[in-house]
Amino acid sequence: MPTIQQRMFKLKELLWIRMGPGSATIPRNVQSISLRLARQIDGGHRGPKKFIREILPRIKYRNPWLPIKVDRNAPNHEAAFMTVTFTPSAKRDPTRIEMKYKPESEIWSQLADVVRAQTIAPSEVELEETEEIRKRNEHSRVVREAQLAVNAKLKREKELLEAAKQQTAAVMQAEQGA
Protein backbone atom coordinates (compact mmCIF):
# COMPACT_ATOMS: atom_id res chain seq x y z
CA MET A 1 0.00 0.00 0.00
CA PRO A 2 1.41 3.40 -0.94
CA THR A 3 2.34 5.81 1.79
CA ILE A 4 0.77 9.23 2.17
CA GLN A 5 3.96 10.80 0.83
CA GLN A 6 3.79 8.63 -2.31
CA ARG A 7 0.15 9.59 -2.81
CA MET A 8 0.93 13.28 -2.41
CA PHE A 9 3.75 12.98 -4.94
CA LYS A 10 1.35 11.40 -7.42
CA LEU A 11 -0.99 14.34 -6.90
CA LYS A 12 1.87 16.75 -7.54
CA GLU A 13 2.40 15.07 -10.89
CA LEU A 14 -0.95 16.58 -11.90
CA LEU A 15 0.89 19.89 -12.04
CA TRP A 16 1.06 19.57 -15.84
CA ILE A 17 -2.56 20.67 -16.03
CA ARG A 18 -1.78 24.06 -14.43
CA MET A 19 1.02 25.16 -16.76
CA GLY A 20 1.99 24.88 -20.38
CA PRO A 21 0.15 25.48 -23.65
CA GLY A 22 -3.53 26.09 -23.01
CA SER A 23 -3.00 27.45 -19.53
CA ALA A 24 -4.78 30.71 -20.18
CA THR A 25 -7.92 32.55 -19.24
CA ILE A 26 -10.51 32.99 -21.94
CA PRO A 27 -12.67 36.13 -21.86
CA ARG A 28 -16.28 35.78 -20.76
CA ASN A 29 -17.53 36.90 -24.18
CA VAL A 30 -16.89 33.34 -25.41
CA GLN A 31 -20.11 31.41 -24.99
CA SER A 32 -18.92 27.90 -25.94
CA ILE A 33 -16.35 25.86 -27.85
CA SER A 34 -17.23 22.74 -29.80
CA LEU A 35 -14.86 20.37 -31.56
CA ARG A 36 -15.50 17.70 -34.20
CA LEU A 37 -12.95 15.09 -35.19
CA ALA A 38 -12.52 11.39 -35.91
CA ARG A 39 -11.65 8.71 -33.36
CA GLN A 40 -8.65 7.44 -35.33
CA ILE A 41 -5.63 9.59 -36.09
CA ASP A 42 -5.57 8.63 -39.76
CA GLY A 43 -6.27 11.29 -42.34
CA GLY A 44 -4.91 14.29 -40.43
CA HIS A 45 -6.67 13.81 -37.09
CA ARG A 46 -3.48 13.31 -35.02
CA GLY A 47 -3.07 17.01 -34.13
CA PRO A 48 -6.69 17.50 -33.05
CA LYS A 49 -6.55 14.35 -30.92
CA LYS A 50 -3.35 15.52 -29.20
CA PHE A 51 -4.97 18.94 -28.71
CA ILE A 52 -7.87 17.27 -26.88
CA ARG A 53 -5.56 15.12 -24.77
CA GLU A 54 -2.89 17.68 -23.84
CA ILE A 55 -4.18 21.24 -24.22
CA LEU A 56 -7.94 21.03 -23.70
CA PRO A 57 -7.63 19.87 -20.04
CA ARG A 58 -5.56 22.98 -19.30
CA ILE A 59 -8.14 25.22 -20.95
CA LYS A 60 -10.93 23.58 -18.95
CA TYR A 61 -8.91 23.79 -15.70
CA ARG A 62 -8.38 27.54 -16.08
CA ASN A 63 -11.92 28.19 -17.41
CA PRO A 64 -14.36 25.85 -15.62
CA TRP A 65 -17.33 28.04 -16.59
CA LEU A 66 -16.74 27.49 -20.32
CA PRO A 67 -18.87 24.73 -21.93
CA ILE A 68 -16.73 22.62 -24.26
CA LYS A 69 -18.32 19.95 -26.43
CA VAL A 70 -16.24 17.29 -28.18
CA ASP A 71 -17.71 15.13 -30.95
CA ARG A 72 -15.42 12.26 -31.97
CA ASN A 73 -17.79 10.64 -34.44
CA ALA A 74 -16.65 12.31 -37.67
CA PRO A 75 -15.40 10.00 -40.42
CA ASN A 76 -11.66 10.19 -41.11
CA HIS A 77 -12.15 11.70 -44.57
CA GLU A 78 -14.13 14.67 -43.19
CA ALA A 79 -12.59 17.84 -41.82
CA ALA A 80 -11.69 18.25 -38.17
CA PHE A 81 -12.79 21.65 -36.93
CA MET A 82 -13.48 23.75 -33.87
CA THR A 83 -16.32 26.23 -33.58
CA VAL A 84 -16.06 29.14 -31.16
CA THR A 85 -19.40 30.78 -30.31
CA PHE A 86 -19.49 34.23 -28.76
CA THR A 87 -22.14 35.83 -26.56
CA PRO A 88 -24.67 38.12 -28.26
CA SER A 89 -23.15 41.11 -26.48
CA ALA A 90 -19.79 40.43 -28.17
CA LYS A 91 -21.39 41.07 -31.58
CA ARG A 92 -19.14 38.52 -33.27
CA ASP A 93 -20.11 35.68 -35.54
CA PRO A 94 -19.15 32.12 -34.63
CA THR A 95 -15.62 31.34 -35.77
CA ARG A 96 -14.59 28.03 -37.30
CA ILE A 97 -11.00 26.84 -36.91
CA GLU A 98 -9.86 24.06 -39.23
CA MET A 99 -7.75 21.50 -37.35
CA LYS A 100 -7.07 18.77 -39.91
CA TYR A 101 -3.35 18.16 -40.61
CA LYS A 102 -2.31 20.78 -38.03
CA PRO A 103 -0.21 20.17 -34.91
CA GLU A 104 -1.78 20.84 -31.53
CA SER A 105 0.42 23.90 -30.93
CA GLU A 106 -0.84 25.58 -34.10
CA ILE A 107 -4.45 24.78 -33.18
CA TRP A 108 -3.90 26.36 -29.74
CA SER A 109 -2.28 29.49 -31.18
CA GLN A 110 -5.20 29.97 -33.59
CA LEU A 111 -7.72 29.52 -30.77
CA ALA A 112 -5.81 31.91 -28.52
CA ASP A 113 -5.77 34.53 -31.29
CA VAL A 114 -9.49 34.16 -32.02
CA VAL A 115 -10.63 34.43 -28.40
CA ARG A 116 -7.81 36.74 -27.24
CA ALA A 117 -6.76 34.42 -24.42
CA GLN A 118 -4.54 35.73 -21.60
CA THR A 119 -1.69 33.28 -20.94
CA ILE A 120 -0.99 32.52 -17.28
CA ALA A 121 2.69 32.26 -16.39
CA PRO A 122 3.67 29.54 -13.91
CA SER A 123 4.38 30.71 -10.37
CA GLU A 124 7.66 30.16 -8.53
CA VAL A 125 6.04 27.43 -6.43
CA GLU A 126 4.89 25.58 -9.55
CA LEU A 127 8.36 25.85 -11.09
CA GLU A 128 9.93 24.51 -7.89
CA GLU A 129 7.46 21.62 -7.77
CA THR A 130 8.20 20.83 -11.42
CA GLU A 131 11.93 20.72 -10.66
CA GLU A 132 11.26 18.48 -7.63
CA ILE A 133 9.24 16.11 -9.82
CA ARG A 134 12.02 16.04 -12.44
CA LYS A 135 14.66 15.25 -9.78
CA ARG A 136 12.52 12.54 -8.22
CA ASN A 137 11.84 10.93 -11.60
CA GLU A 138 15.56 11.00 -12.39
CA HIS A 139 16.35 9.41 -9.03
CA SER A 140 13.69 6.76 -9.64
CA ARG A 141 15.22 6.00 -13.05
CA VAL A 142 18.70 5.57 -11.52
CA VAL A 143 17.37 3.30 -8.75
CA ARG A 144 15.36 1.27 -11.27
CA GLU A 145 18.42 0.75 -13.50
CA ALA A 146 20.52 -0.31 -10.48
CA GLN A 147 17.83 -2.79 -9.41
CA LEU A 148 17.65 -4.19 -12.94
CA ALA A 149 21.42 -4.74 -12.86
CA VAL A 150 21.16 -6.54 -9.49
CA ASN A 151 18.28 -8.69 -10.76
CA ALA A 152 20.22 -9.58 -13.93
CA LYS A 153 23.25 -10.58 -11.82
CA LEU A 154 21.09 -12.76 -9.54
CA LYS A 155 19.44 -14.40 -12.54
CA ARG A 156 22.81 -15.13 -14.13
CA GLU A 157 24.10 -16.64 -10.86
CA LYS A 158 20.98 -18.78 -10.60
CA GLU A 159 21.45 -20.00 -14.19
CA LEU A 160 25.11 -20.83 -13.52
CA LEU A 161 24.17 -22.70 -10.33
CA GLU A 162 21.47 -24.66 -12.19
CA ALA A 163 23.93 -25.51 -14.98
CA ALA A 164 26.50 -26.67 -12.40
CA LYS A 165 23.88 -28.86 -10.68
CA GLN A 166 22.93 -30.44 -14.00
CA GLN A 167 26.57 -31.02 -14.87
CA THR A 168 27.22 -32.59 -11.46
CA ALA A 169 24.16 -34.81 -11.84
CA ALA A 170 25.36 -35.92 -15.29
CA VAL A 171 28.84 -36.75 -13.95
CA MET A 172 27.33 -38.72 -11.02
CA GLN A 173 25.11 -40.66 -13.42
CA ALA A 174 28.06 -41.41 -15.67
CA GLU A 175 30.11 -42.68 -12.70
CA GLN A 176 27.26 -44.91 -11.46
CA GLY A 177 26.67 -46.32 -14.93
CA ALA A 178 30.35 -47.19 -15.48
From TrEMBL:
The keyword Ribosomal protein applies. InterPro entries: Ribosomal_mL43/mS25/NADH_DH (IPR007741), Ribosomal_mS25/mL61 (IPR040049), Thioredoxin-like_sf (IPR036249). Residues 144-171 form a coiled coil. It is found in: Mitochondrion. It comes from the Eukaryota. Residues 40-118 form the Ribosomal protein/NADH dehydrogenase domain. PANTHER family: MITOCHONDRIAL RIBOSOMAL PROTEIN S25, SMALL RIBOSOMAL SUBUNIT PROTEIN MS25. This is Ribosomal protein/NADH dehydrogenase domain-containing protein. The lineage of its organism: Eukaryota, Fungi, Dikarya, Ascomycota, Pezizomycotina.
